[in-house]
Prior knowledge:
The chain is of the alpha/beta class and about 325 residues long. It has helices spanning about 45-50, 120-140, 160-170, 185-190, 200-205, 225-230, 255-260, 275-290, 290-295, 305-315, and strands at about 1-10, 15-25, 30-40, 65-75, 85-90, 105, 110-115, 150-155, 175-180, 195-200, 215-220, 235-240, 265, 300, 320-325. A hairpin with a 2-residue loop joins β1 (about 1-10) and β2 (about 15-25). The longest helix has 23 residues, at about 120-140.
Amino acid sequence: MTFKALLATRDSEKLSVNLVDFEENDLMPGDVTVAVDYSTVNYKDGMALTGRAPIIQKFPLIPGVDLSGTVEASSYPGIEVGDRVVANSWGLGQTHHGGYARKARLSGDWLVKLPEPFSTKDAMAIGTAGYTAMLSVLALEHGGITPDRGDILVTGANGGSGSIAIALLSTLGYRVVASTGRLEEADYLRELGAAEIIDRRSLSEPGKPISSERWAGAIDSVGSHTLANVLAQTQYRGVVAAFGLAQGADLPGSVLPFILRNVTLAGIDSVNAPQSVRFEAWSRLARDLDLDKLAKTTTVVGLADVPDLAPRILEGKVRGRTVVDVNA
């Protein structure tokens, strides 16, 4: 049986991604087969599809670090035919065929059953970006950052993780400051719950090793000078959750925020997070994420549209979340 899939190949170091008819027998080993409904385009997918970073580690490979769908066959205990499931990372789109296809075979260890009230489309409107945003909120809570402590800064606010972080934080009662390079999107960010919008240029240049205290916590997807400046302006005993490198992987800052203000820098890894953490994150998303706000972040495209979106997401030209209907 064949089905449509995007397949990445490499020839003489040139990366190509094409829509193909893929044989089910050529899927990789796994104890669960999923009829895929939706995938999504994350920043990491953009890097993979453009070859900007060596995300794809074996060729040929179906990219896509996320997928959601319905179980067609399973020998994995606790996962049954008909279950609606979501998979985030675990090597999908890197070493194992990923979500940009109408069918997937993978390990049951990688799957989370979708909690109510989410549809499979909702699951990919969230995707790795939203799941990472939830992990970041959990890190703030673990560090004792409650709404009464003060403002929470969200950098890269127009992106997928930033958009969902704003929606989550505002629903939980936090006052959110959104940092963006696209001030024309201020109304969109306010609809998600941002109380204040600042220009990312105020954070993106080299700054002082420590500055006036501004926010109780932050969620950063940018890295480099931005993250250094965020730390320098975090309040005493504040927490900064960091997971991105849109500006760079460097951290040209100082130890002063840590040793003078007891600031915590919490690293967020969504790829290898244990199942217990994933279950908690998806349970909290089901409880705390406003589906009306989620819908405001979401655009739906077809499988063939994905390659053209990859460079745009890296350039910061894609707002919110992009859901891929693999059957369109």
